């Protein structure tokens, strides 16, 4: 079998942004965080990703600002390198090769040219012991430098970066592990160890979890697994150290941080409450409750104006120093398992899976951004260990995205299972799903599968359950009553008391297949008649899938005993079968293709085939380690024109799958990569402003105007388009008020300067007149003049006389092309953005 | 930062019929006025003229009632035997009635003595009606014949002898003076045309026909007989359109609502059913105390008049718009609109400094306590609430948080008795039982050590025990009944074979060689 090299398996978004502590830059404009194999730079004001710093070849394990240059940052990675970046321009400056698996990185202002990294004692990945080593960076002009000089500072430290902290201007470094706190003084080259008595016999776990040193005074705050915070003082001697204890958290303190001035101490834990303690007045506390999920890291900007907390649900919250949330950067929420399948919302084309506890998340694959969360359970989440919570276990969309069905369940230790089936209708006005019907206890046992009928005439939902029944739910219309339409049970069926495991509708909705253990039953959903039964023992049916388009006469099924069967529905006989351990069978909704993921000796192989053809279209051995349980074909917004046989199956849709380690992967072809590269070059705009179609439309235009305007000698100084940061504005504000003209006079002028008005174009008219005339002629001859004309009117609407109408800013050819491209862009994300 | 999500109060489905536009319309009648007549009331007919008096035929009299009086405004008593079918002419001036003594009498509404007597039938005449030209009378008799009479010279025009049993109902067309329909105990409906002097259409109802009715358009005909109401399409040669079986005794009377959108049927089973004439679904039903023989609606459905076998005439008048508002004389003063919009539509002026304040969310008392994790207080405030749904929802929420035990424990006698009181009231309610049974078990576990210290609580616990035991017995009985019903159903259902084609013999295994590698 030939392995096709043109198709690569790539990570596509959704990597963890909460793995390590984020860093806020010294001007508080950007936030840096490690995200998988890259470092992402977010704007703190717009929440948009400004740069994606790529270069590492393994997980990024730490990001710190360069203490000697506040526009640079170091990042360390498990690939054994430390890289220095210019994050404002997104450029890699230097690479330091250390050749150790680096777990975390620390810097101090006092130690210029020295990095402190945590590496394993023996240079093995599996090593349990770690040491803190100082790395003296060699001064060299080469972009890649090998670092030879490593000197151990502390032995046996915790790999957790929160357990190491520099104190008062880098005089000492404190590290905690287990029940021991170790402080190393650089001047004396001496370390002191303090240990706590184990409280295990009393049922208390008082081991250290995190540490933070006061920036001004000699004080170390440590967090403990029992929820206590201890403040250590007088620790520069072995005997007479003291500590005081603060206690508010009822579970482990995950992270601690002093503000840069040392006036406040921030702490967070599983309660998802940010606690702000006043230093020296510890009984005064401020709380910021209900942050959504357990706090894993807290970072503070160097000027103390912003805090940010990263959370267990792959989220970074940016908080103002007045303890108010200002922005939220949300990544793809990945639990340890995806209980609901991967789904595609037919409206927004977003990937849908369960996210935060009790929520469904809508994740845009194209923009690698979470669009919104839909609260399914609608209950206050109690952040406490050992509480049984409702979980969203199943969800399904109908073909048009008008209806969403969700199943939530909660299993208590002693009592019975609680199941709710909820049906949500799409509300055009609010652009989101609204709860229509709640069915409590729709089945007596767990629901195993759920699907909507694809036929356009009826709105029908089918659920199967371990209680041996399947139920059909129908939208009942109560046009004669006051109430709106709601769902009710239409039919309850079963087959010889066997437990149904899966269900599938045929593409036109005229047939419905259920897998009742070893038997496949085919029903007619209109009359609820059992049409036929198919079976191919041994092994229970695991997955069922109808063929599409030209292959719609085939029904495919996989069984637990390594069988992939294909039945012909016209003859009701087995067409072919093959021994394969298929863990997942997925049909492409836009073609006849089927994807089968087979697990074989610890790794997964993929076969893409048509049910009617004996040869697979595409196969890939050893795709990834472990079983693939979830995959989905997502439609492309633009079709690819690949003509090669092996990549044709990727033309209309793209296959995404989740590996065992919850990495979202996809297949990419060469043509697609070329296209991506081209578009990324096009979008190189270095600003903190997000690149949106609006930006491309307005921002470029404005920039050009700005450039042209700078050339002209403008008599009015305050008429610069950008008000913030302009020297003229500053001057205006600094000038005493009594020497300025009246405010109303200035105001109208000021406001006019902010508008994209024709008056500014009027100024630039004279130099560019020649060029424009010729251009407008060109445009008239152009076939696309009708598209262009209304835009021109839009810009020129403020102009009074018709002579100046032509002087409105005529777009250049390139801009026009841009406009056309923007017009073609998929703006469906806008709708989802609006209801966030 | 997300705001606190309030406790979800579960909405339980309301039992009983759904409230529809029809139920609202047909319930909008005052309490019935009842008048005792001398015998079974066989016919009620409204006058087409303005005050809409109605003629009630019972025993040997015909009473004419005014729209609001409970005393008859006029009485016709000149019958030798039981009178039948007192009907008004379309101008409201004349009234015709059949009689057990086979004589048909024609009255002037203002007079007393019969103007004409039509003699020719040999047996009781149960139906008498005017034709649409007002000059003829149709009569149907128990001697299996029906006749057309000329009013001016009181002669018999035609006699039709086509039925083979008693003719107990008939209706004349309002659009054509020559057409009429009769229904007989020989199970047939016949449509006659006076121009050809014979029946032009025969329909088989399969039951003795008790009542017939034309639709206003006269394209459809409704007949009632036995338990069935059937609708026939006259334009398709009497093809049956619908057969309705919604009564469990003989249907005796049919009637259309004022706008012709609803069909009413009255039956011996004491019910009046209202059908929608587009889909023939029952949209409403009335209950009466005795078997109903006759039913009539005033024009515009202003009143519903029903006559029963025990001689009671029940009259229901429609509520007027003032009465609809209910007995509260002085309506409560609502705050004026200005109060609600105060300050909302204020536009900030030029120099105003805007302070944005987030809208304060209002939480219920128990939610405020839950937000602060005060579990016992949350339960206390929930118990003060009147609605058991809310209390149960809070108990469920506490159970979900795993703190129900803490909330239930540590109560004094008064608090505990309040709690047990609530349980006694609601624990057997099937909507709340799953939640409250766990709570009850927890209470018994917590307080079993102190049983016997308080007489109040002990008495309540004994009551609770009795209640639960009674409920268990009841459930057991219900299960037994269910078992019996299951066997009954299983034996009545026909056995259906599941089609299972021969599959496994001709399995065509098409090995995919390149697949396996």
UniProtKB/TrEMBL annotation, chain A:
GO BP: positive regulation of rRNA processing; positive regulation of transcription by RNA polymerase I; rRNA processing
Annotated compartments: Nucleus, Nucleolus
One Pfam family hit: Beta-prop_WDR75_1st
InterPro entries: Beta-prop_WDR75_2nd, Quinoprotein_ADH-like_sf, WD40/YVTN_repeat-like_dom_sf, WD40_repeat_CS, WD40_rpt, WDR75
Domain WD repeat-containing protein 75 second beta-propeller, first and last residues per copy: 342-662
Biased composition (Basic and acidic residues): 762-776
Repeat region (WD), residues: 53-95, 246-277, 440-473
PROSITE patterns for this protein: WD_REPEATS_1, WD_REPEATS_2, WD_REPEATS_REGION
GO molecular function terms noted in the UniProt entry: RNA binding
Region listing for Disordered, in residue ranges: 762-811
GO CC list: small-subunit processome
Keywords: Nucleus, Repeat, Ribosome biogenesis, rRNA processing, Transcription, WD repeat
Name this protein carries in UniProt: WD repeat-containing protein 75 second beta-propeller domain-containing protein
UniProt source species: Esox lucius (Northern pike)
UniProtKB/TrEMBL annotation, chain B:
Domain U3 small nucleolar RNA-associated protein 15 C-terminal, residue spans: 348-488
Pfam families: UTP15_C, WD40
PROSITE patterns attached to this UniProt entry: WD_REPEATS_1 (PS00678), WD_REPEATS_2 (PS50082)
GO biological process, one term: rRNA processing
WD repeats: 118-159, 244-285
Keyword list, A-Z: Nucleus, Repeat, rRNA processing, WD repeat
Subcellular location: Nucleus, Nucleolus
Any one GO cellular component localisation term in the record: nucleolus
Database matches in SUPFAM superfamilies: WD40 repeat-like (SSF50978)
Principal subcellular localisation of the protein: nucleus
InterPro entries listed in its UniProt record: U3_snoRNA-assocProt_15_C, WD40/YVTN_repeat-like_dom_sf, WD40_repeat_CS, WD40_repeat_dom_sf, WD40_rpt
Subunit structure, interactors included: Part of the small subunit (SSU) processome, composed of more than 70 proteins and the RNA chaperone small nucleolar RNA (snoRNA) U3. May be a component of the proposed t-UTP subcomplex of the ribosomal small subunit (SSU) processome.
Role: Ribosome biogenesis factor. Involved in nucleolar processing of pre-18S ribosomal RNA. Required for optimal pre-ribosomal RNA transcription by RNA polymerase I. Part of the small subunit (SSU) processome, first precursor of the small eukaryotic ribosomal subunit. During the assembly of the SSU processome in the nucleolus, many ribosome biogenesis factors, an RNA chaperone and ribosomal proteins associate with the nascent pre-rRNA and work in concert to generate RNA folding, modifications, rearrangements and cleavage as well as targeted degradation of pre-ribosomal RNA by the RNA exosome.
Protein known as: U3 small nucleolar RNA-associated protein 15 homolog
Naturally occurring in which organism (per UniProt): Esox lucius (Northern pike)
């Amino acid at each position: 079998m030939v392995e096709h090299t043109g198709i690569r398996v790539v990570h596509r978004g959704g990597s963890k942004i909460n793995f390590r502590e984020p860093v806020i830059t010294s001007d508080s404009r950007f936030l840096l965080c490690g995200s998988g194999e890259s470092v992402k730079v977010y704007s703190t004001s717009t929440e948009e990703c400004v740069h994606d710093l790529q270069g590492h070849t393994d997980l990024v394990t730490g990001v710190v600002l360069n203490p000697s240059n506040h526009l640079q940052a170091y990042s360390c990675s498990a690939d054994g390198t430390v890289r220095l970046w210019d994050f404002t321009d997104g450029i890699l400056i230097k690479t330091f090769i250390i050749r150790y698996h680096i777990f975390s990185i620390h810097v101090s202002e006092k130690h210029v040219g020295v990095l402190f990294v945590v590496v394993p004692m023996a240079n093995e990945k599996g090593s349990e012991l770690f040491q803190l080593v100082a790395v003296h960076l060699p001064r060299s002009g080469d972009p890649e430098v090998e670092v030879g000089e490593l000197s151990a500072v502390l032995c046996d430290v915790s790999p957790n970066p929160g357990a190491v902290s520099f104190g008062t201007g880098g005089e000492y470094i404190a590290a905690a592990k287990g029940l021991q706190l170790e402080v190393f003084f650089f001047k004396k080259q001496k370390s002191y160890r303090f240990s706590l008595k184990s409280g295990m016999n009393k049922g208390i776990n008082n081991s250290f979890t995190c540490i933070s040193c006061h920036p001004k005074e000699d004080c170390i705050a440590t967090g403990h697994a029992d929820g206590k915070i201890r403040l250590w003082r007088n620790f520069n001697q072995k005997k007479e150290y003291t500590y005081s204890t603060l206690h508010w958290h009822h579970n482990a303190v995950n992270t601690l941080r002093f503000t840069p001035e040392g006036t406040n101490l921030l702490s967070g834990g599983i309660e998802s409450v940010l606690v702000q303690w006043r230093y020296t007045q510890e009984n005064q506390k401020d709380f910021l409750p209900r942050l959504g999920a357990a706090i894993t890291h807290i970072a503070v900007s160097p000027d103390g104006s912003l805090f940010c907390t990263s959370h267990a649900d792959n989220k970074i919250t940016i908080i103002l120093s007045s303890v108010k949330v200002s922005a939220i950067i949300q990544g793809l929420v990945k639990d340890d398992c995806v209980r609901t399948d991967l789904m595609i919302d037919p409206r927004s084309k977003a990937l849908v899976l369960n996210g935060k506890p009790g929520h469904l998340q809508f994740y845009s694959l194209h923009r690698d951004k979470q669009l919104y969360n839909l609260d399914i359970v609608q209950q206050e989440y109690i952040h406490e260990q050992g509480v049984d919570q409702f979980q969203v276990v199943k969800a399904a969309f109908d073909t048009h995205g008008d209806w969403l069905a969700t199943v939530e369940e909660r299993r208590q230790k002693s009592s019975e299972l609680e199941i709710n089936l909820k049906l949500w209708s799409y509300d055009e006005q609010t652009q989101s799903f609204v709860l229509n019907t709640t069915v409590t206890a729709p089945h007596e046992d767990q629901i195993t599968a759920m699907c909507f009928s694809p036929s356009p005439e009826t709105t029908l939902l089918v659920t199967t359950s371990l209680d041996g029944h399947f139920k059909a739910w129908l939208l009942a219309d109560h046009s004669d009553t006051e109430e709106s339409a709601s769902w009710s049970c239409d039919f309850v069926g079963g087959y010889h008391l066997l437990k149904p495991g899966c269900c599938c509708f045929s593409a036109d909705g005229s047939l419905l297949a259920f897998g009742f253990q070893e038997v496949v039953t085919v029903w007619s959903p209109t009359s609820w008649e059992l049409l036929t039964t198919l079976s191919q023992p041994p092994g229970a049916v695991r997955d069922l899938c109808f063929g599409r388009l030209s292959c719609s006469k085939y029904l495919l099924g996989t069984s637990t005993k390594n069988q992939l069967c294909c039945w012909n529905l016209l003859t009701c006989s087995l067409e072919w079968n093959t021994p394969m351990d298929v863990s997942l069978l997925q049909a492409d909704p836009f073609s006849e293709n089927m994807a089968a993921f087979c697990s074989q000796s610890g790794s997964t192989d993929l076969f893409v085939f048509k049910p009617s053809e004996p040869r697979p279209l595409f196969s890939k051995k050893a795709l990834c380690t472990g079983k693939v349980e979830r995959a989905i074909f997502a439609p492309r917004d633009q079709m690819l024109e690949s003509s090669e046989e092996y990549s044709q199956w990727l033309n209309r849709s793209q296959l995404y799958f989740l590996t065992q380690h919850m990495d979202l992967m996809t297949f990419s072809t060469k043509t697609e990569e070329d296209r991506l590269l081209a578009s990324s070059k096009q979008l190189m705009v270095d600003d903190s402003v997000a690149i949106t179609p609006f930006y491309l439309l307005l921002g470029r235009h404005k920039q050009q105007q700005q450039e042209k305007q700078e050339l002209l000698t403008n008599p009015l100084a305050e008429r610069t388009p950008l008000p913030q940061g302009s020297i003229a504005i500053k001057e205006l504000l600094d000038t005493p008020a009594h020497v300025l003209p009246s405010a109303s006079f200035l105001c109208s002028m000021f406001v006019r300067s902010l508008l994209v008005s024709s008056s500014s174009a009027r100024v630039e008219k004279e130099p560019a007149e020649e060029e424009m005339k010729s251009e407008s002629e060109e445009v008239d001859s152009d076939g696309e003049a009708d598209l262009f004309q209304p835009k021109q009117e839009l810009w020129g609407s403020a102009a009074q006389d018709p002579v100046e109408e032509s002087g409105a800013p005529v777009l250049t050819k390139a801009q026009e092309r841009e406009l056309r491209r923007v017009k073609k862009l998929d703006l469906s994300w806008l709708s989802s953005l609006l209801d966030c | 930062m997300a705001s606190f999500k309030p406790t979800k109060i579960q909405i339980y489905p309301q039992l009983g019929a759904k409230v529809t536009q029809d139920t609202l319309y047909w319930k909008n009648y005052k309490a019935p006025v009842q008048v005792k007549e001398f015998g079974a009331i066989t016919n009620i007919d409204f006058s087409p003229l303005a005050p809409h008096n109605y003629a009630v035929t019972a025993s040997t009299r015909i009473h004419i009632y005014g729209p609001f009086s409970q005393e008859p405004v006029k009485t016709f008593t000149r019958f030798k035997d039981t009178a039948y079918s007192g009907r008004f002419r379309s101008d409201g001036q004349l009234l015709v009635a059949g009689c057990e003594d086979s004589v048909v009498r024609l009255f002037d509404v203002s007079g007393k003595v019969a103007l004409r007597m039509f003699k020719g039938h040999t047996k009781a005449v149960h139906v008498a009606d005017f034709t649409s030209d007002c000059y003829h009378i149709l009569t149907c008799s128990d001697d299996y014949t029906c006749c057309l009479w000329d009013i001016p010279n009181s002669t018999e025009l035609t006699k039709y002898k086509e039925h083979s049993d008693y003719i107990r109902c008939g209706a004349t067309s309002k659009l054509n003076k020559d057409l009429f329909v009769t229904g007989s105990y020989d199970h047939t409906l016949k449509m006659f045309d006076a121009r050809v002097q014979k029946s032009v259409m025969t329909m088989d109802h399969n039951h003795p026909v008790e009542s017939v009715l034309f639709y206003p358009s006269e394209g459809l005909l409704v007949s009632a007989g036995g338990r069935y109401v059937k609708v026939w399409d006259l334009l398709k040669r009497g093809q049956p359109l619908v057969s309705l079986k919604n009564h469990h005794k003989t249907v005796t009377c049919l009637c259309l609502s004022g706008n012709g959108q609803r069909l009413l049927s009255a039956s011996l089973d004491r019910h009046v059913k209202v059908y929608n004439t587009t889909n023939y679904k029952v949209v409403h039903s009335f209950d009466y105390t005795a078997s109903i023989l006759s039913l009539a609606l005033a024009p515009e459905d202003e009143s519903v008049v029903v006559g029963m076998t025990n001689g009671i005439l029940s009259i229901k008048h429609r509520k007027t718009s003032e009465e609809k508002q209910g007995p509260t004389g002085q309506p409560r003063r609502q705050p004026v609109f200005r109060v609600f919009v105060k300050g909302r539509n204020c536009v900030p002026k030029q120099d105003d400094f805007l302070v944005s304040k987030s809208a304060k969310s209002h939480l219920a008392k128990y939610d405020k306590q839950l937000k602060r994790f005060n579990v016992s207080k949350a339960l206390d405030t929930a118990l003060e609430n009147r609605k058991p749904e809310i209390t149960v929802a809070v108990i469920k929420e506490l159970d979900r948080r795993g703190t129900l035990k803490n909330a239930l424990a540590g109560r004094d006698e008064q608090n505990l008795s309040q709690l047990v009181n609530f349980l006694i009231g609601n624990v057997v309610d099937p909507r709340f039982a799953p939640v409250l049974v766990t709570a009850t078990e927890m209470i018994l576990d917590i307080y079993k050590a102190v049983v016997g210290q308080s007489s109040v609580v002990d008495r309540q616990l004994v009551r609770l025990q009795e209640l639960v035991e009674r409920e268990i017995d009841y459930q057991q009985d219900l299960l037994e009944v269910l078992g019996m019903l299951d066997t009954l159903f299983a034996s009545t259902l026909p056995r259906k074979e599941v089609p299972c084609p021969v599959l496994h013999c001709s399995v065509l295994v098409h090995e995919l060689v390149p697949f396996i590698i």
